[in-house]
Amino acid sequence: MPTQPNEPDRAASDPAEPTPEAVRPPHGDVPRPDPAPRPEAAHDASEPDAEPAEPAEPAEPADDEYATAVQELEDRWRRALADLDNLRKRHARELERERAAERSRTAAAFLPVIDNLELALNHSDAAPGAIVEGIRAVRDQAVNVLELLGYPRHAETGVAFDPARHEVVGVVQDPDAAPGTVVEVLRPGYGDDETQLRPAAVTVAKRE
Questions:
Q1: What is the pLDDT of residues 13-42, one digit of tens each?
Q2: 3-state secondary structure at position 154
Q3: Rounded distance, CA 197 to CA 154, Å?
Q4: How does pLDDT run across 190-206, given as a tens digit for each residue?
Q5: Please, where are the H alpha helices in 123-191?
Q6: Burial track 58-69 (b if 16+ CB lie within 10 A, e otherwise)
Q7: I need a labelling partner for 174 at 20 to 30 A (CA). Which of 45, 61, 96, 165 fits?
Q8: Nearest 5°: phi and psi at 122?
Q9: Total Cβ atoms within 10 A of residue 156
């Protein structure tokens, strides 16, 4: 058989096989594979999540802060007591001032009555009838002053007995008067049901 010539080396003659120098990137940078993750850095789904940290408790105030707060409250309490005492004293002074002013107004209302009484005494030598008329006029003037002060006069007869306005000083038999009515007024009363200065002293017809 004829001998076949030896085939040349395919690795040396095949241009499709690149040499190590041909696949090397330019500028001498050789790509490196990504490093594998470390075992301890990988998250294990089987392990439970770590519990959240508890919030830190607030720090308790120091003794100096307590002392300062107590001192401030004590100062406010003392100021409130002082203001209340001043208000009480001012109210007492105003009340006494009003009482004095009311007494002054009442006394001034009776001054004309006193003046007329002095005039009647100065004319005591006049006729008796004139003196009586003058005294009656002074009496009416005094009654008018009491009425202006809120104490009207009541001395009516023939009215029904009212325990709020009348004070019984006697019981009489009077066929002309209805039982339980006022027959005679011995002392007039002044005031009304709400502001009674004094009740009228009366005699009442007897009930059969």
A1: 444 444 444 445 444 454 555 555 554 544
A2: strand
A3: 11
A4: 988 788 889 999 999 98
A5: 128-148
A6: eeeeeeeeeeee
A7: 165
A8: -70, -25
A9: 14
